[in-house]
Design brief:
Elements (H helix, E strand, L loop, with lengths): L2 H13 L32 H30 L20 E2 L11 H13 L4 E7 L7 E4 L11 H10 L7 H9 L3 H10 L3 H15 L25 H10 L4 H10 L17 E9 L9 E11 L2 E11 L2 H18 L9 E2 L1
Parallel strand pairs: 1-7
Antiparallel strand pairs: 2-3, 2-6, 4-5, 5-6
Length: about 350
C-alpha cells in the first residue's frame, strides 16, 4: 500500500465514524466464563505512516479534550451550584435512605453531554448505551448512545434474588443469595430459581419484583431458550427499564436486601461501575452477542446505583465488543464518563418513593 493511501486511511479512521446500529433483541445465551481479548499487538517496527498516525492521534486527542472541557464548563454554568457533601452512600446502611416527598427530576445529561458520549463511542470498539435517572418512583430517564436493549444475562439474578427474599426464604438461602449476587455464581442462582418453583412460577415471582421496583414492561424469561444456559439470563431488558428498576429498588424491602450484596461484588468483577472512582452498588452480566466472532459478538452490561456529588443515581450501561476483555474495558470507560458528566445537582439526596 502506498504511503499516500496509508495516510488517507489513517485520517479516515481518526475522523470518520460509521453509524452504530441499535440492537433490539439478542437471542444467544449465557456463557459465564470470561472470554480473553483476541486483539494482538503487531510485532512490526514503527513505519512513517505509524509515526504520522501517532502524531495525528495525539493532536486530535488534545483538541478533543479541550473542546470537551469547554463544553462541560458551559453546561455547568447553566445549572445551579451543586451542594457539597461526601461522595458516598450512608455508611453501614443496607438500604439507601428514602423520603416521602419527591425531589426535582431535572435532566441529568445536557445536549453537550450527549455529544461528548457520542465521541466517546467513536473511540470504543463496539456499540454502547446508557440510561440514568435519579432514585425513586416515576423519575425521568436520560439516555445516550445507540445501544438501547439486550439480553439481561446475570443482571437478571437481582430480581430472582429479590423474589426469594420476598417469599420469606432468605434465611435458608443466605449462601446462595450472596454467591449469586457478589460472585455471579450460576449454580447458586439456579438454586434460587428452583426455590421459587422454576419455570413460569419462578419467572412470575421475579417479574413481580420488577413491577414493585418500577419496571412496568420487562418479563422475566421462563423457559430455557438454549440448553445449558439459564432461562432468566435470556430475558430481554431495555436499558431505560433497567434504570427505572434500579431507581426504585430502594423502595422495596427485598431490594434493600439485595443492594447490601451489590455493595460486596467480588474483586475480579469490579470493572465498569466498580472502577469509576465513585461508590457504587452494582451487578454485571455478560455473554454472547449478536454475531459471535464479530465486532458485536459479545455483550457486557451493568446496572447499579452510583453516588455522584453526594447524590445516588441509578445507572444502566451496556456495550457490544468482540470479546469480554474489550467489553469490560468499554464499560469502565463508560462508567468513568458517567461519573464525570452526569449533573446530579437537581437530583434528590434520597429516593422519593
Amino acid at each position: 500500500m502506498s504511503a499516500c493511501i496509508g495516510r488517507k486511511l489513517v485520517c479516515q479512521a481518526l475522523f470518520v465514524r460509521a453509524s452504530l446500529v441499535p440492537i433490539y433483541l439478542i437471542c444467544a445465551a449465557l456463557a459465564f466464563s470470561a472470554c480473553g481479548d483476541d486483539e494482538q499487538a503487531s510485532s512490526a517496527g514503527p513505519t512513517s505512516d505509524a509515526e504520522l498516525a501517532a502524531k495525528i492521534s495525539a493532536n486530535a486527542r488534545l483538541r478533543q479534550e479541550e473542546r470537551d472541557a469547554k463544553e462541560r464548563e458551559a453546561a455547568r454554568l447553566k445549572t445551579t451550584p451543586q451542594l457539597s457533601g461526601a461522595d458516598s452512600l450512608p455508611a453501614g446502611s443496607a438500604e439507601i435512605d428514602r423520603e416521602g416527598s419527591s425531589g426535582s427530576s431535572g435532566g441529568l445529561l445536557s445536549a453537550a453531554d450527549r455529544s461528548s458520549f457520542e465521541r466517546l463511542g467513536g473511540q470504543l470498539a463496539g456499540a454502547e448505551g446508557l440510561a440514568v435517572t435519579p432514585l425513586g418512583a416515576n423519575q425521568s430517564v436520560s439516555r445516550a448512545g445507540s445501544l438501547r436493549t439486550g439480553v439481561a444475562w446475570s443482571t437478571a439474578k437481582v430480581p430472582v434474588a429479590m423474589a426469594v427474599i420476598s417469599s420469606g426464604s432468605a434465611s435458608s438461602h443466605q449462601a446462595n443469595l450472596r454467591q449469586a449476587i457478589t460472585a455471579s455464581d450460576n449454580a447458586a442462582a439456579e438454586r434460587l430459581w428452583t426455590a421459587l418453583g422454576g419455570g413460569a412460577r419462578a419467572a412470575a415471582a421475579a417479574t413481580q419484583q420488577l413491577r414493585a421496583a418500577g419496571d412496568g414492561r420487562t418479563q422475566i424469561q421462563a423457559q430455557r431458550l438454549r440448553s445449558g444456559y439459564t432461562a432468566f439470563g435470556q430475558t430481554a431488558w431495555d436499558l431505560d427499564d433497567q434504570a427505572r428498576f434500579m431507581a426504585g429498588i430502594a423502595c422495596t424491602k427485598a431490594g434493600a436486601g439485595v443492594l447490601a450484596f451489590m455493595n460486596q461484588v467480588a474483586a475480579g468483577q469490579r470493572w465498569g461501575l466498580g472502577s469509576a472512582g465513585r461508590q457504587a452498588r452494582f451487578k454485571a452480566g455478560w455473554g454472547p452477542g449478536v454475531s459471535p466472532g464479530s465486532a458485536d459478538g459479545w455483550l457486557d452490561r451493568q446496572m447499579g446505583v452510583m453516588t455522584i456529588d453526594g447524590k445516588p443515581i441509578a445507572v444502566a450501561i451496556a456495550t457490544t465488543a468482540s470479546n469480554h476483555g474489550t467489553g469490560t474495558a468499554n464499560l469502565t470507560a463508560i462508567a468513568r464518563w458517567v461519573a464525570n458528566h452526569v449533573d446530579a445537582s437537581s437530583a434528590p439526596r434520597r429516593a422519593s418513593c
